[in-house]
Each structure stands twice: as C-alpha cells, then as structure tokens.
Structures
1.
Amino acid sequence: MKYHTDNSGTEKPYIDFSLIFIILFLVAFGLIMVYSTSSYEASMSGVTNNDPAYYLKKQAVASVAGFIFMIIVSYVPYHFWEKMSGIAYVVSAVLIILVLTPLGYEANGARRWLRLGISIQPAEIAKLAMIIFVAGLICKLKDAINTRKGMIFIMVPPAIICLMVWQITDNMSSAIIIFGIAFVMLFIASRDYKKFAIFAVVASAFAALLVFAITKAADSDKFGFRGARILAWLDPEAYASGKGFQTLQALYAIGSGGFFGKGLGQSIQKQGFLPEAQNDMIFSIICEELGLFGGICIMLLFAFMLWRLMIIANNATDLYGALLVVGVMAHIAIQVVLNIAVVTNTVPNTGISLPFISYGGSSVMFLLIELGLVNSVARKIRF
Amino acid sequence: MKSEKRVKRVRRIRVENGLNKDMQAKLVILFVLVLLAFAGLGVRLIMITRDNGERYKKQVLSQQKYNSVTLPFKRGDILDCKGSKLATSEKVYNMIVDAKVMLAKEESLEATLDALRICFPNLDVSAIRTHVTQNPTSQYYIVKKQLTYDEISAFLEMDNNNEEYPDIAGVWFENEYKRVYPNNSLASDVIGFTVRGEGGQYGLEQYYNDVLEGINGREYGYLNEDETLERTTIPATDGYNIVTTIDANIQQIVEKYLYQFNEENKNAARDGNGANNLGCIIMDVDTGDILAMASYPTFDLNNPRDTSRLIGMKKSELNGTIPYDAVVLTEANIEEELADDEIKNANLANLWKNFCISNTYEPGSTYKPFTVAAGLESGKLTGEEYYTCNGALQVSVHNIKCHNYKKGGCGTLSVKGAVENSCNVSFMLMGRQIGSGTFLEYQSKYNFGLKTNVDLYGEARTDSLIFGGDTMGETELATSTFGQGFNVTMIQMITGYCSLINGGYYYEPHMVSKITASDGSVVKTVTPRVLKQTISEQTSAQIVDYCIGVVEEGTGKEARPAGYRIGGKTGTAEMVPRDRTNYLLSFMGFAPADNPQIAIYVVVDRPNSWVQDNVGFARKLCRNILTEVLPYMNIYMTEELTEKEEAELAELNITVKRANTEEEETQESQESDTPDVDENGNIDAHGGDVTSSIPVTEEEMQSDDVEMAPLTGNVLNMETGEAVKENTDEVPY
C-alpha cells in the first residue's frame, strides 16, 4: 500500500488498481468463456440466427454498459446513496411486483424478467438495493442493532424482499443471496457472534432435516421440483435423464478435464450435452477446458478480489462506506461459493450464476455498478 | 469464538469512523471462512477429478455421436443457351421435432405447438403432440418435408424472438435441396426429372447425372491420438451446371404450336390427342447444336407422376408397346385402366420418353433426299436422268404404287422433279440404278442403324431395324428408296439431313455446349464435332437445290413461312398395320434457302383425322413454327409479303426485318459475333467456325461404273401396269 501513501497530504483519491485489474480480468475472461461455451450451440440454433457470437455480443454490450455505469458511480459521492436507502428499498419492491404486470415476461421457464426498454431481472436490482438499504439502516440504528429488537428490525425488511423474490419471481436462489447479504452485513456490524452462530446451526439443521424428510418421503412429488432436485443431488446418476442430468453432465465435464484440461475451446460437453453451458454451469466447462488448474486459478482470483474488498472495507473512512463494501463482498462471496458448490454437486442444484463470468447481462451490469460503489468508497481513503 | 468473548471493552459504533477493530476482526473472520469454503470446494474439485476423472472421461466420449451427418450437395442447374434456368435446385427445409428438447421445459410444448399452429395453418399440430408425448426421448422426427424459406420464415421469426416467445423449443429445420423446373413442362422430354432430387431420370438429368451430381459433405466425429473427440466437416461439393444448346424461346414457340396442333385436332376422328405423337427438332445445320427438341404429349417436370397428362394418349401394354387398337385414356376411364400400378408406370414411362430420340418409325419420303444424294455422290446418278411414272411399278411380285396412282402417275420427271413431286416410281427406278450395295453403304454413311450419340438418355437402337446386304432384296431396295421398310429415329434423320445441306459435314448432334462449376468457372466447352463427311459439297449443293424446289414447285409449298425462302422435303409414311389408315406425316427442311442456318424436322404420328395421309398436317405445323422462329433468330426476310401474310405477321407481333431497311440491326449483329454477311444480307454466324474444323474425307466424286442401262429398262418395266389394281392390295407394307 506504500506507493499510495501521499506524505505531502494533498487530496489525491485512492484508486485500488489491483481491484480494477481483477475486475477487468474477470470480465474479459468471462467474455472469452461465454464465447467458448456458447458458440457451438449458438451456431447450431435458429434461435440465435446461427451466429456463434450471438451470446458474446450481448454479453459484451452489457459489460461495456456496466463499465460505464461503474465509472459514473465511482465518481458519485457514496453518501448520496445513504439518502436513497428508503427509495432504493421501495423501488426494488415495486419492480418485483411489476413482474406480475404485463411488463414482466417469462424466459427459461420462470417469470423473472422485466422489459423496461432493456430486459432486466428485478432480483439483481434488489441485491444492489439491499446493500444500500441495509448499510443505511445500520448507520441509522447504530448501537441499537446489538439488541434483539434492533436485529429483528434490520432483518425484517430484507426478509420481506426475499419472500417477494422467492414467491413472486419464483427465484429461491436470489432470495437466499439477498438474505445472505443482509445477514453478513449485520454480522459484521453487530457485536454478537453467538446469535449468528446459533442461527447458522439451526438453519443447517433445518436444511438437513428437510433433506432427510424428502429422502424418506414415499411420495417426493409433494415437495415439488425442489424435492426432486434434492434427490437428484444425493444420487445424480439415478436421475441421469431427469433432474440429475445437468448436474451429472457438469460433473462429467469437470472430471474429464483432468489437471490442465482439454484446452481452451476444446470442451466436448458444451456441444449439446450441457445445455446452456454459458449460464450457471460455466465453471464446469472452465474446468473441462482449463482443468483443475484453471478452475482453482479462478477461485484464487475471486479470493484475491474479496481480499481487496476486505482491505477497502477495513480502511473505509466511515461506517456507511465500509458497510457498502462489506455488502458487495458478501454478494460476490456468496454467489461464487454457492455457484461452485452447485457445479460440484456439493449442494443441490439451484440457479446461481458465477459473478462476472456466467452469461447474464443484468448480473454483470449490476455487479459492476456495485464495484463502482466500492471504488467510490476507496476514493475517500487516505493512507 | 470464545477468545472474542474475552474482549471486555465494548466498542461503540461510530458512523463517522469506519469499521472499528471488532468489525475489522469479524470481516477477517468472514474472509477466512470464505477462503475455507473455497478450499473445501477446491478439494471437492480435486476429488471429482481424482476419483471419477477416468470414468467421466469415458462417459463423455461414450455420449458422443460418432455417426456422421450428411451435408447435401446442390445439384447443378440446367441452363438454356441464353442462361435462363431450365432446371435448378432450391434450398428447402425439413421440419424436425426434437421431443426431448420440447419437453425439457413444461411450458415449451404448448408454446411451441401454438406457434406452429399460427405459422403453419395446414399442419396437423395434434399429430406432433401425440408423437412428442408418446416418444418423449425421440430427437429426430420429420414432421414436414421440403418447406420453402418463405413458409418457415414466420416461425423462425417467432422462434428467434426470445422476449415475446421465450418458450418455443424443440423444432429445427434441416437443409435439403429440391429440384425445381421453373418452366414446368417446357422441354420436359429433353430435360428429364429427378427422383427426390437425386438420380436423374430420362433426358439430360439422366445422361448428365454424374456431372450434375456433386459430392455430399460429411460432418463426423472421431477419436484422435489423444483420445479426444474431434469433429470434422467435409463440405459438400456442388454439382456442375450444364449449359444446353436449347434456346428456351425457340423451344417455347415449337411447343406452343405442337400444343395448338393438338388442340385443333384432338377428338376429331376418334377420342384422344390430335396425333399419337408430335415431334419437332430444330438444329443448327453448321454445328449440330439442337436449338429445340419437343414432342407432344408433355408432362410437368415438377410433378412427373401426374396421370392427368396421360389423358388422350393410347394406353400402353406392360412392356411399353401401344397396340394398334389400344384404348384411349380418358378422364372417365383413366382410373380404372391404370388401376394396376405396373400398367400405370408403363404408361408414365411412355409419356416420359423422348419421342424425338426413343421412337423408331419408317421415315417415308423425307428419306428421298438421302437416296438421291447417295446416287449422285456415288456417280450412279448424274442428275440428268428422266423417269416416267404411270402410277405404279412392278417390283418382284408386288405392284408398288405412287401417290399419284389415281391420277395416272406423275408423268415424266427429271431427278429434281422426282424429288419435288415425291414420285415413288422414279425413286424405285433410281434405286435400281444405285443398287443395294451402294444404297446400304450410304445409309450407313448417313449413320442410319447407328446411334447418333446425342447427349440425351434413351436414344433407341436401330441396328436391327434397317436392312443389311443379306436382307435387302429387290422389293426392300425399292421401298427403302422412299423411306419405307426400315426404321429411323428423328434425331438420326435431322442429323443426317444437316450433313446433306451443309456441304456434307456430319456433326455429332449435341445438347450441351458448356459445363460450368458452381462458382461459374468453365469446366468444359463442347465444340462442334465433325464425325465424317457424308457427301461432297457439290452434291450437297444439288440436294439444297432440289429441296428448295420441293418448297417452290413441289409438295412442300405450304411449308414456306411468310417472308422467307426455305427448302425441304415432305413425307407421308405408311405405318403398320398397312391398311391405309395409319400414316406418319413429316416435313424436314432448312432455312433460309440461300444460306441454310437451321434445319427443322416435324413429325406428326398418326393424326387424329378421318384422312390421315395428308402431309399438310406436317407442312402447316412447320410453317407455323418457322414463321415465328426465323424472325426471332434475326434472320432477315427476303421474300415479298402478300397482304394476307402481312396481316398474319402483324397478328403475331412480328416485325418485318429486312437487311436493306434495318442497317442498325446488321451492325449490331456484326459487333456480337463476327459474322459473314452474304450477298443476300443474311448473317452467317457459323461459316467461319465450320470450315476450320472439317476433317475432309475425300469422297470419290465420280464412279467409273455408272450404269445407265437400267434406266430405260426400268422405265419400260414400269409400263406393265395392267395388273396394278389386283396387286396393290398385296403390298406387304
């Protein structure tokens, strides 16, 4: 950090070039992998006019837009967003409800998208809004957050949004992420450890019990498709042609890659076996093409990014800024961990994209906006 | 965790100070937890690779499809001499349903079927639903074949619109080529068709099948040395295009008049077509290029199995022959008559075959120029002979009549007069002078009995249908002189006739002038090929003169189109059974008279008439065709027009072109094709080429053993005409 130290005391904003580099690297790597994973299917499909670069082009446009937003946001003093906390919350709630109106539309079997000139997922906006909202709320309540009442007071509004995301947009994974972001932010701000540990243990126990119940149930249908997914998780090969298909194909991809992989662009699994390989399962194709080595390198890059976020959070000049960065860090960490856990069949299959790398315009754009917030916070740091 | 509890001092939250030490510690703990999670996942990755790597590797390979996918080639086009398409291949699309994909999402089935219902109004959507629900794992089900791009574009648009129709899935389109004949029945016998876009049947499609066909490409997978799957694509090689010598406009004119002939004469004396067969060939006399070749009835190349085209034809037997008393197929009886598939196929085969090259018949008097040419060339005739015709000639036990028998014969005729009046008696007398040896020698020089090797499928063999030295007796020679007793094909006749007209050069008749690749490059250019010299230029000039005489003075007057001078020969051939009710009428001519460019041969096989032996059927047909073809070919008119003729031309929208009044036209033509303009102002575009490519085979102009003696003898013999009436009935043909 020494080279950033400015002994003369002039107001030179801090820019975390390591972080910027990582962002650029991940987005560029993401574009390469989106092209690698999607070009075969895109070239074979009439849906994409047989244009192999169809997905690449869309993702590139979203990425460029995301960078522009990131730069704009990084120059906006972040306390502006503190004033926007309430509005951000209301807007995200309204957008989720709008999905029910004709503005919303269905894709890939779920009604999660809004057509507002461009198509966006309200859940992605809700993640950003939740970071802004919870940071603002904590700064408002201050020490009151350490009381049980305060904790509940902070967690109820995110819980409401989570319920809406889950029930209205039928998107449990996003609900979990949003809840996780709020939970981590509160955990950092709070003085307490015990309550969080207990909550985590209770939640895990409940999940285990649910899994047990599903496996023992004579009729797994009453648990819906999520019940089937859990059964497929436990024994993917028994459900190879059904719910376990995608997971199993992802495992085949990882396993067949070996240590150094088949080489960039050489995946076999992306050629029709792993459907929509550019989406949530992109990490398995990374492993197939670039091997364990490539997969672990990507994880290290994410770890490095999270480390830079931690440094910025710990050095932020005020609490609100620090909490914003914590929120972003939580968001990225949760998604990376869950995504790789899903791909490796460590947890049941649920649709979570790999930040910056998976195909998805809304996702990459809002992630870059969040990093704009981080840069904005970093600019205020004086070493 | 417990160590944290020991921290006694409670740090208060200060908004303006950033994270306090507790929070920073917590954040570090969080980061460590995340790292632990990463480490755990990393271990999981390693375990998957280590424990299952080999198995999964095999699994991945075993899932691969190694079977190859065929990439279809495009069959070459068939073009006319001006480049317009007579046959082409269009990309069409087969609709394939992938049930697995369609059922992958619950909403897809209904959304996709709805879209199909909207875009394909005639599609049985419920059949797809049944198939998909009953075969949920099927991935390749052909729903509909050969859809055009226009038909599928609406669906593709919906399918591509992921915002409004996100759930459409499981329908894709496979490329294929469909053979299309833009002019439907035009030149149907010449072009031929294909079965399912491949495997040409009849005509050019079959003869040039190997040229038109390309090589299918393939996309296939294989395991390389590293045991990884490689997929390779070998692109398809498209077939070559063939440029024919056919001029679609001339072809169209010819077919128009054949059709008109049929319309005017059908159902006249009996049910059915205007004639059993109509045929017409127009050939460039100086190259052997076939400019038009048409016959009637025709069929729709785009729907060759349409049996309605058989209506009006006589029903053929299983072996393809049509008996004399065959049933005429009518709308009422066709279904019943063709109930048997084999019979139906035999009848269709009869429709598809090219009358101009596949049918053999006795040519009749159109053969006479060949006889005279043989006599003159061999020196057996001088051209100065005179013959007397009293109406019939006793040959062996037969008394063979002339067509003027009832009028008491043709009287005394010169050789030219005999040709002009088509006098059989004179020709039989000439035959005696020529002798069977010389006659047969020339017949084979003219290529009768041999295939012309025209580049079309289905040329008939005639080697067993002509006389040989051992089978030709006195009677056979006599009848052969006027074209009866042996069989020919139309293509043999006109090809041989061209050599009589053009100075004796026998060109191999051909249909294709150029073969080009799909990128437009020329693969092969077919240059006119002189096979031999049949007669000398001098004899040829005499034959030209005789044939002009036929049109100006003799039996061919009616064949002359308005404004032109032409030469030619008529023919009225008796057919089996020789009961004087079955005739084949023909006219074979050339135009323009002074500088022959094209030869035309028109055949009317058994016209639908109470009186069939009327060569006017053929003459008129020929005249109609030439009236339009010659002006189209920019051949200048040389003859005065009567008012009636002017009115006729005006009705056909033909502008009168004359060399002296249309100088611009001449110049235009000169620029295009370095032509020679002869004294009459006619353009001779071919003259230059021909002389350069002639292997001159010296023919003996004079023969020492010219026998003049039989001449008088024959004439005298002819006068024993008392028993004519009784004997004529015994004539065996």
2.
Amino acid sequence: MRLDRRTLLISGLALATFPAHAAKVAQGLFVTDPPRPLPEIDIRDNQGQAAGVAAWKGKPALVNLWASWCLPCVAELPALDRLKPIIEPEGLRVVALCLDRSGAVGAVNTYARLGIKNLDVHVDHHRAAGEAFGAAVLPTTLLLDAQAREVARYVGPAAWDGPESLALLRALIAGKRLDGAMGPPLVKPTANP
Amino acid sequence: MRLRVLALAAGLALLSPAPLWAQEFSGRFLLETHDGKRVNDESFKGKVRMMAFGYTFCPDVCPTALSTMAAALEKLGSKADQVVPMFVTVDPKRDTQAQLKDYMSAFGPSFVGLTGTQQMTDAAAKAFRVRYEIHPPTSKDSDHYMVDHSAGIFIMDRDGRLVVKMGHLATADEVAERVARVVDGE
C-alpha cells in the first residue's frame, strides 16, 4: 500500500515536470528472453486460405509486419524480396504480413508498384496482429524459432539483404543464441518510395 | 529531501482540482478537411469524436494509433456511425489535402484528415495540449526517433468536451469500450 502510494506520487511528479514530447521508441534488435510463443491469429494468403502461426512451425521464420500507409515499411520491402531467394534455401521462412485494412488488395497493389517478385501475400485478416504480437510501431520484424516462438524482434527498417542481416539470420537458422549487438543497421528511407 | 519532494507532490495533488494535463485544454480548432472544407470543433456537434495528432511522413517507425482507431470503430458496430474519427497533422507543409486524403483512405471512409496553415495547426495542437517537435533525421542519432509523447487518442463527447485521453498503447478493445460508453451517454 505504502509502496503503491509512493510510486503513484513519484509518477505524478514525473508527469508534471518532464517534457511531454521527449519519449523515444527504441529501435534495433531486441532479444526476447525467454522465447515467447506467438498467439494464433487469423492470417490468410492471397487465396483467403489460412496461412498463420501454425503454418510457420517446422523451421525458423522472419515475420515482417508492414502496412501500405507506413513509408519506412514499404521502403524495406524490396530488401526482403531480395532476401527471400537467398535465405529460404538455407532453411528460413520469410513472411511479409500486411496489416492493411483493405487486406490482400493493399498488399497486391503495393507489391505491383514496387515490383515485388518473391514475397507471398499474407494478410492479417482481422487486423489483430499489431496487438497480438505487441507491435506498437511499424515496421516490426519478428524472428521465430522452429516452434514459432519469438526469439528476437527488430524495430525499425533494416537492410535485410545486407551482410549483417545474413549473419544474424544464419545464426537464427543454426539455433544459436542471439544478442542485441547482432542487429543489422537501421536504414533511413531517403525518398518517398 | 526525497520525503519533502513527495510531500510537495502530495500537496500539489490535493490542491489541484483537475489532473494537471487537463488544464488549459480547450479542444477548440479551426482546420481544413482533406476535402478542403473549413471546419471547427462545433462542426461536429452531436457526434462523439476520436482524435489523434501526427504526421504521415514518419521517417523510420510509424505509430499505429490510426489502426487502433479503425479497429475500435469496427468493434463499435452500429454505434460507429455516431462517431467521427479525426486525424490532425502537425506537419502541414508536407501533409497537403491530397496527401491526407490518400492516407485517410487506408483507415476507412469515415476518417477525417485535418490540416491547415502552420498557424492553424499550431493553434489546434495547443488547444489539445499536444506538444510536438519534428527533428530532421541525423546520421549520428539514427538509433532513436522522437515520438510525440502527448499523442494518443482523445475521446470527446457530442459537445466536444474531453472525456479521456487514451495512451498510445491502448488496445482497440479498450478504445471501443470507452467510446461506446460515451455514445451511450455514460
């Protein structure tokens, strides 16, 4: 009781004195320890067939959460598209999960506009992924083990086909322990994609 | 020293009639919709309002407040037509009417994008006690991105009075539940 009250008073004071705009969202690679099983949500492919968490089990996966209204998300899709044919033969599933309200239409249009060739369409059918997977900002990319448990997440856009990313993803495939320093560099989009 | 600080905080808490953040909140604005219509807070009289501030050109990560609002509206079912979801840009230079119109269409037909001159948007932000700062990206500090902490979702009643400001981590269920209560006049 006493502790609660004290905490309350301290937080009240903090609210009163700290600048309201100074909060920061930390970006980069964060290890999820212990690994967190992903909740099952309704994810569909381009044909409306179930393509969710259960279907990701069996091998490690990279699951990128994106939306067509999110410029940095759209900017990193081509790198994921280039990554997929490189890394999938090595044993990693690459999934781009579209959180658009328009579902597959938004994903297909964006793929067409960007010339995406390798990524399949995955849509968050009831737009539950952001909350269910705990992503408060986009893009957020989840790294899953073969049991579809989150072992790390990357917040922000990255050069997914670059050497740092490949080293990280190969460690994930090998089942090695990841650490925060293994994250690929953040990429700042320079123009409207 | 710590005890004195706590005592002071306790004293302030007792003296303040309203939460500190609620003071100076007028909720008034004069802005232009993404369709070029000039509107103010009274233009939406009779409707419950959900409002978020932000900008469409998020440079490296984008908050999901508008997605949360869109999901909340769907959860509201038939009550949703008594609710106006609004988005006010704090970056009117880049967020033109055309840009906003395109952006709002991603969230739903009832979303109203609001922009104006820098003066108009500054005045609106002030009226909602929204503080913002747009930092040009620097290569030195690429690990962090300034997010407007006073962003979040404002819920206002049919007269435009603030009922509550939900934090940026509020879930669609929480927002829908709160808005439903306002629609029901609670």
